[in-house]
Design a protein that fits this description.
The chain has 16 helices and 9 strands. It has helices at about 1-25, 35-85, 105-110, 135-140, 165-175, 195-205, 225-235, 255-280, 295-300, 310-320, 340-360, 360-370, 370-385, 390, 395-420, 425-450; strands at about 125-130, 150-160, 185, 210-215, 240-245, 290, 325-330, 455-460, 460-465.
């Protein structure tokens, strides 16, 4: 009875299947019918081809990043020469930024961008600061000795009036009386949304009277020539400028966690940063950006981005939608931060993974698969399925060759981005660097999967729940 029931069910399924197929496509000749085993073989072959293709894409992106970084290094030489010419320029007629309206409109922006106007437009530097660490004093002091012939104003922004950073900032202002008249501290700005950075800086931004604004995080120091380099980059084609941004890097690696993140910025992060920008897809990190105030005002001003937790991404997106382009500065950001534990680095990476997932889901899925270890495992399995007669007994060797080759490629990329070799010459130090590199490469997929586990992120001591586009979900009883 059981056999008859099963046959009857199978007959019904087969009749239903044939009836639907016959209705739409007509009867299928017996010679063209595929059994289940053949379907599985076709599916396995398609998966193998997809895996091999993914391996090819991963290596193309790695090699492409090296060429793009080398091109950036070559172009940086010309940008620095333009910056030197800017510093040596005599005379400027554009120091009266306060008299210029920041109203939106392409005609007014073109005039402000000075086609035939001043060589050295005025710049207001806005630095959001929270808390005091071992690097804050050094980072702040570097902004009091900028070699720039135009007007420069410094705005230091602190959210909490009781923050000890207030005293450190005031001490630096007192130590530089020649710059003090152009410095101002903004403390306790009212909230306009849920983005902590926007809440801290929006009042200082609204008071800007210069054509250009430089927003720079507290962990990013300045060299004497950095501002002139970024302005010279902005002046290459002022009418099409969206943002000038620095390639993010980490300046030191005192702890194991710092070494892992240093490698993250110099290899995995840098790879997509250079590749996507080379393909014409503007990717910007908001640690250090220069832009025309009139441009940001034309897309809603600073307050328009208070609902997003990734305000830098959407600032760039709005400007790209307006037909403007981002450009890389010739010098990386070289962040100076205090020593941090590995757990802090892990939490930071998970937060970024969740932000990416809520902004561009495809990126959040593909990016970790194209890192060294996951890509190697997928590639070896796919090659073994596609060419079983050649790969039998050689899978481990193929994987080892892939990892070793990737390490060499990452070493080249890291050297181009930071100007320093990946592994020091001494064997103990080289072993520590290799350990950090392997941990970063193997941990990327873990952190990405953890990023899919929740929509909540912890940032600056506050917890946020993210909706699509990294918009902060408003908690009950609170107003944005």
């Amino acid at each position: 009875v059981e056999s008859r029931d099963c046959s009857r069910k199978d007959d019904k399924i087969q009749v239903s299947h044939v009836s639907v197929r016959t209705f739409f496509l007509g009867p299928t000749p017996p010679s063209q019918r595929m059994d289940v085993g053949e379907c599985r073989r076709i599916g396995a072959a398609a998966a193998a081809v997809a895996g091999v293709g993914l391996l090819g894409v991963g290596w193309l992106s790695e090699i492409g990043a090296i060429f793009a970084a080398a091109r950036w290094r070559t172009r940086s030489t010309h940008q620095r020469q333009a910056a030197a010419a800017l510093r040596n320029s005599v005379g400027s007629s554009d120091h009266g930024g306060a008299e210029r309206s920041s109203a939106a409109g392409q005609d007014s922006r073109a005039g402000e961008r000075g086609v035939g106007a001043a060589a050295c437009p005025g710049v207001t530097i806005i630095k959001p600061i929270k808390g005091v660490d071992a690097t804050l004093t050094t980072n702040l002091s570097s902004f009091f000795s900028l070699d720039y012939p135009g007007d420069v104003f410094l705005s230091f922004c602190v959210k909490d009036p009781n923050d000890p950073a207030v005293g450190v900032i005031q001490d630096q202002i007192d130590r530089h009386p020649e710059v003090a008249p152009r410095c101002k501290m903004w403390v306790g700005s009212p909230d306009v949304g849920f983005n902590p950075k926007v809440n801290t800086v929006h009042e200082a931004y609204a008071a800007v009277t210069t054509p250009l604004v430089w927003m720079c995080d507290s962990g990013v120091p300045a060299t004497p020539t950095l501002l002139s380099e970024m302005v010279a980059t902005a002046l290459e084609d002022p009418t099409s400028l969206g943002l000038v941004h620095q390639v993010p890097t980490l300046n030191q690696g005192a702890t194991w966690g710092d070494q892992v993140e240093r490698l993250h910025f110099g290899t995995g992060h840098a790879k997509w940063y250079f590749v996507l920008n080379a393909l014409g897809i503007d990717v910007v990190n908001g640690m250090s950006i220069v832009f025309y105030k009139s441009t940001l005002d034309s897309v809603g001003g600073m307050r328009a981005f208070s609902k997003y937790l990734a305000e830098d991404y959407f600032m760039n997106k709005y400007m790209c939608n307006a037909g403007l382009r981002a450009r890389m500065a010739p010098t990386p950001s070289n962040q100076r931060v205090p020593p941090r534990a590995l757990k802090e680095i892990y939490d930071r990476q998970v937060r970024w993974a969740r932000l990416r997932r809520r902004i561009v889901l495809s990126t959040a899925i593909l990016e970790p698969m194209l890192e060294c270890v996951p890509l190697g495992l997928i590639g070896v399995a796919s090659l073994a399925a596609a060419f079983p007669q050649h790969c039998e007994g050689h899978r481990l060797r193929v994987f080892g060759l892939h990892v070793a080759s990737w390490l060499v490629a990452d070493s080249c990329l890291y050297h181009l981005v930071t100007g320093t070799p990946l592994t020091p010459l001494s064997l103990p130090a080289a072993g520590a660097w290799l350990r950090s590199w392997l941990l970063r490469e193997s941990g990327t997929m873990v952190m990405s999967l953890h990023g899919f586990a929740s929509n909540k992120v912890l940032w600056r001591g506050a917890e946020f729940e993210l909706a699509r586009d990294a918009v902060v979900i408003v908690p009950e009883g609170k107003k944005p």
